[in-house]
TrEMBL record:
The keyword ATP-binding does not apply. The keyword Phosphoprotein does not apply. Residues 41-60 bind DNA. This is TetR family transcriptional regulator. InterPro entries: Homeodomain-like_sf, HTH-type_TetR-like_transc_reg, HTH_TetR, MftR_C. Keywords: DNA-binding, Transcription, Transcription regulation. Pfam families: TetR_C_14, TetR_N. Gene3D superfamilies: Tetracycline Repressor, domain 2. It comes from the Bacteria. Residues 18-78 form the HTH tetR-type domain.
C-alpha cells in the first residue's frame, strides 16, 4: 500500500462521487440509529439526503451497503496514518498512536460519526446484512494493513507473520470498537479500549507498565 502522499490526486468526478457516497452513508447511519434497519428503507435514505432512488442504487446495492463508507472511514484513516509513520518508530507505538488519532474528532470527521457508528453496531445483532457489511469492511482493512505493517516491521508482506500481525491488529481494533459501542461511555473510551487490546495482544513482549 503506498504512502498517502504517493497516491495520485482524485479527479473532480471522483471527489464528487466520494462526497455523495459519504452523504448517503451518513444519512443511512442516522436513520438506522434512530429507527433500526428494519424501520428504514432505501427510499427513506434517498429522501433524507436529497437524492433520487435511482441515484441511491447507482452507488449502493442495498440499504445496508450504504453505511459501508462510514464504517470503513475509521479504518482507512487509521491505515493512512500508520502508513505515514516514520519507520524508526516502534511498531506498537505506531499502532497505538495512529489508532488513537483515527478515533479522535478532526476536520471532516465529526464526533457524531463515531456516535452513528455506535448506533449501527448496536443494530447489528438483529441484522445479518449489517453484520456482513461490517465484516467485509474489516476484511478489506486487514488486507490493506498487511503491507503497511510489513514495512514497519521488516516482515515479508506475503508471509505468515505479516498476515498474523495484520489479522491481530485489525481484530483488536474491531473488538475494542464493538466493546465500546455496547457501553454508554464517551468516545474517548474507544481509544482507551483499543490501546488495552493492543497491549494485551503484545503481552509478555512488553515491559511492565
Amino acid at each position: 500500500m503506498p504512502a498517502p502522499d504517493d497516491r495520485p490526486p482524485l479527479s473532480l468526478t471522483e471527489r464528487r462521487k466520494a462526497a455523495t457516497q459519504q452523504e448517503i452513508a451518513l444519512a443511512a447511519a442516522r436513520l438506522f440509529a434512530e429507527n433500526g434497519a428494519e424501520g428504514t428503507t432505501a427510499e427513506d435514505v434517498a429522501r433524507t439526503c436529497g437524492v433520487s432512488l435511482r441515484t441511491f442504487y447507482r452507488y449502493f446495492r442495498t440499504k445496508e451497503d450504504a453505511v459501508a463508507p462510514l464504517l470503513a472511514e475509521g479504518s482507512r484513516h487509521w491505515i493512512a496514518l500508520l502508513a505515514a509513520t516514520d519507520p524508526a518508530v516502534p511498531p506498537l507505538t505506531a499502532l497505538l498512536d495512529s489508532a488513537r488519532a483515527s478515533l479522535a474528532p478532526a476536520p471532516g470527521r465529526p464526533a457524531e460519526s463515531l456516535a452513528w457508528t455506535r448506533g449501527l453496531l448496536r443494530a447489528m445483532p438483529d441484522d445479518p446484512a449489517l453484520r456482513d457489511v461490517w465484516h467485509r469492511v474489516h476484511h478489506d482493512a486487514e488486507a490493506a494493513l498487511r503491507p503497511v505493517l510489513a514495512r514497519l516491521t521488516g516482515l515479508d508482506a506475503e508471509g505468515l507473520d505479516a498476515r498474523l500481525l495484520a489479522a491481530a491488529a485489525n481484530t483488536a481494533m474491531r473488538v475494542a470498537v464493538e466493546t465500546w459501542a455496547a457501553r454508554d461511555t464517551p468516545p474517548s473510551d474507544a481509544a482507551d479500549l483499543v490501546e488495552t487490546a493492543f497491549r494485551r495482544l503484545a503481552g509478555p513482549l512488553l515491559p511492565p507498565a
